[in-house]
Amino acid sequence: MSDSGLYIEERKLVKRWNGPLPALANLAVILVLFYGTWWIFQDPRGIMRMYTPYVGYMWCRWILIMLIWVAYIFNFWPFKRTWLEKTHPVLKGFILTAFSVAIFLGVLKLFFNGFLGNFAIAYFSPAQLTKLGLTEFYAEEYAAQAILMFAAIASWLSPAWVVAAENAPWQKLGQPVRGFSVLMLTFFMSVLVYFVTMHPHMGILFDPWQKYAAIAPPYWQNFANTVHGNFHIAWIMCATVIVWMYETIWERYPFKLIKTDWLRRLTAFFGIFIIAVSLSFFLYYAQELAWGPAVRGTRRLMAPDWRWLHVGEIAIFWLVPALFMYLYCDNAPKRFSTPMNVFLRTVISIAAAAVIYIVYYKTSHLFLGTQKGFSHPQQFPMIPMIWLINIFLINSWFMDSWPGWKLVPSEHTVHAPAEEMQWTAKFKLGLVTGTALGVALYFAVVASLPVLTSLIKVE
Amino acid sequence: MSDSKISRRDFVKGALTGVGLGALASMGVFSYSPMRNIFLPEIVRKQQDFGVCKSVKVTNISETSWFENSALMGDIKGAGGLLVNQYVYNWPPFGNGKGLAKGSYADGMAMIKEYIPHDLEKAWAIVEKNSVHPENAGGFAALVEMEEMDGTKHKYLLDTGWSYKWMDESFKREGIDKMLQNGEIEALIISHEHFDHFWGFPVAMKYAPNIPVYIPEGFYEEGLQYIKDSGHKGTLTTLKKGLNQIKSGMATYVFDVPIICRVFGEQSLYFNVKDLGLVSVTGCCHQGIIQFADTAYKELKYENDKMYGIYGGLHISPFEDWDPKYDDLVISLGKWGFERVGCNHCTGLLTARKFIDQGYNVVEGTARFRSKSKVYLGNGDKIGFGVDV
What we know:
- The complex is a heterodimer.
- Chain A has a two-stranded antiparallel ribbon with strand order 1-2.
- Chain A has 16 helices and 2 strands.
- Chain A has helices spanning about 5-10, 20-40, 55-75, 80-85, 90-120, 125-130, 135-165, 175-195, 200-205, 220-225, 230-245, 260-290, 305-330, 340-365, 380-400, 425-455; strands spanning about 10-15, 405-410.
- Chain A is mostly helical.
- Helix content of chain A is about 65%, strand content about 0%.
- Chain A has one domain (about 5-420).
- Chain B folds into 2 domains: about 5-35; about 50-70 and about 140-385, Ribonuclease Z/Hydroxyacylglutathione hydrolase-like (Metallo-beta-lactamase, Chain A).
- Chain B has 12 helices and 15 strands.
- Chain B has helices spanning about 5-30, 70-80, 105-110, 120-130, 165-175, 175-180, 195-200, 200-205, 220-230, 290-300, 325-335, 350-360; strands spanning about 50, 55-60, 140-145, 155-160, 185-190, 215, 235-240, 240-245, 250-260, 265-275, 275-280, 300, 305-315, 340-345, 380-385.
- The interface between A and B is large, with 95 and 74 residues.
C-alpha cells in the first residue's frame, strides 16, 4: 500500500480478540446488515422493493461509487480527522453512509435527472421519457439503466486513478483540491467512455434507432456478436475488479517493480485495462466451454449479450472473497515473498469465488426473493454481490471494522519498506519458465472446464 | 542467506510472476480468437424422429392479455417491479380488497371458491369488487387443430387466458365452449403459469372439468392448488424438461426457464408438417424463439430440414418496451428461414413492425374483437400450415 495520506491506510486498527473471532464477528454483523438492508430496500417481497430490477441496480452501484469518492478520492473531506478518530464507529458508519446516500441523491436528481435529462439527453430523465409516451415503469427503468452504466464506468476509473495513477499529478495537494481534481478528471473520462460504450446502446433502446444521435447499430456488433452494451459491461466490470485486486491482494504487484513514477503509473493504469479485457475474453470463453457457443438472438443462457453480462457477474463473485481476505483476514497469507503471497491469495480467492458462485446459484432463490437459474431476464447477481461489497466497505472504511477491530491512537504510519525485487538472471529465467508454465496452466484449465462446469447444476 | 538460496528464491519469484503473465497473455490472445473453437465440442444433431403430421391450424381465441399497457405497468411499478410474485399483485381473480401488492392466492380464492367453476358470473362480480384493474384483464388462448397423415383430426386448447368474463365471451365467440362440452377438444395444454395464460382456467373447467391437462414442470404451489380449486377432475400430467411427444408429428418441449412475476418453466409445441417443415406454436415463448428453433435444430428431425412457420407470442416486447438484445433477435431471425410468422400477443406490435421492416413474412390480422392492429394476427384470426384457412 502506498503512502497516500488516506485515512483508511493511516489509521491503526487492532483486533479486539485473538484468532479468527474478529473476522467471524464482523462477518456475522455484515450478513445481518446485508440481509436486513436487502429486505428493506431490495427484496421483491420486502418493503421498498427497489429490485425492479434497474432502480435497485442503479442504487447499489452508485452507493459503491459514493463510498469510493468519500473514502478514496476525498479522504473523508469535509469530515475532520479528529471526528473520524473520536466518533463511535456505529454512529460514524450511519452518518457517513447517510452522507453518501445524500450526495448520490443530489447527483441523481440534480445532475442526471434534472440537468442532463432536461437539457441534454432525454433518457436520463424519467419525466422526459414519460412525456414522450413511455410508461412510467419503463421510463424509470431506462433512465436507471443509463445512470447505472455511468456508475459502472466510474467504478473502474475513479479508484484506478487513485490506485494505479497514484493521484498524479495532484498527489501532493491537500483536500478538497486533490479530491475535486481527481473527481473532475475521472468524471470527464467516465463521460468519454460512457459515450463510446453505453450511449450507442441507449441509442438503439428506442424506436426508431436514434441514428443521428448515436452510432446505430453499435460499432461492436460484429466483434461481440451482439448490439447490446453488455459487451462493454464485461470488460468494465473486470476492470473494476482488477483495480481492487491490484490494490488489495496483489499489493500493487507487479507494476510496483517499476521504479520510474510516470512509467509505473502509466503501465499500471493501462495494464489493469489489458488484464481486464483478457479476463473478460477468458470468462466469455469459459461459458462457451461450459454451455456451448452462444447463439445470437437467443435469450438468457445462450445469448451473447447475457454471456457478456455474466462475465462481469463472475468477476464480481471473485471480488467478494478477495476483499474479505484483505479487509478481515489481514490479507493472509503474508509470510512468503510478494509473488508467492500474491499467487496464493489469487488461487485461494478464485477457489473461494467458485464456491460462492455455486452456493449462490444453488441457494440464493431461497432467501433473496429471486428465482433459481443462471439466467433470468430481470435478475442481476451483481446487485446482491455489490450490495454485500458495499456493506463490507461501509463496515471497514466507515466503521473501522467494528466490532472485531477498534481504532487506537497512532502517529502517522510509516509503511515497511517494500521488498526489494531485483531483475537478476535467475529472476528472468524464472520469468520465462513461469510464462511457459502459465500458458500450459491456461490450456490445462481450458481443457478441464467442460468437465468441471458440467458438475455445477442449479436444479 | 546463501547465494544459491537467493538465486532459488529469485527463480521462484520470477516463475510465479511468469505464471500470471503467461496465463493472462493466453487469456487475452487465445480466448476470443478463432482458434478457441478447437476446444469447443462439435454440435451433434440428435435428429430425434417425432413423426410427421399433415397440417396444423391455429385459431386465435384471444391474444389480448391486457387492454391497457399503462394500467398493467402502473400496477407492476406500484407493486415493486417484475420480480414480484404474481399472486401478490391483487390482480383478478385473486383480489382480496386490500389493494395493490397486498394480495395472496389463499385470500383471493377464499372469496370465490364456492362459485367456481359453475357460476363464474357471480365469481367475477366478486372479483371485480376486490381486485386491482379487473377491467384490464384479457387473456391468451388458442385452438390448435392438427391433422394426422391418415386424416384424423385432433383439437387442443392451448392456454385458458385470464379474465373469466373475457375468456368466456371469447370461447363463445369461437365456439370453444361447445367443443369443450362435447369433448371435441382432447386436452388442455397450459404453456406456463402466468396470469394471462392460466388464471382463466376455471372457464375451461366450466365446460370440461374432465379434460386431460398438461402443464410444464415448475408450477408453484398456488398454481397447482388453483387447478384443484377450479374443479378439475381429469388427469393432470406434469411434463418434464425436454421433449414430450403428444401425437405423431406433434410434441411439446419443456424449458426450465425462470420467468418474470415469479413463474418458472414453459412448454411450447413443435409440429412436423409433411413437405413443409417445422412449425412452432408457442404461448409466450419465454425461452426465446431462436432458442426454441435452435433446440429443434439440435434435437429434432423434421421435413426438409426446414423451419417453416411460427404461431404465437414470442415474448419480445410484451409491454412495448425494448432492449438492444431484442434487436439481436430481429436481426438474426431471418437466418433461420421461417417462411410464415404468425405472431401476436407478447411479441409486441413494436417487434412485429421491426420484423416487417426486416422483410420477414409476418401474417397480417384483421384487428377485430379489441385487437389493436392489423400488423399481426388478432383475436378471431386463423392461420394454417399445410391447410388453407
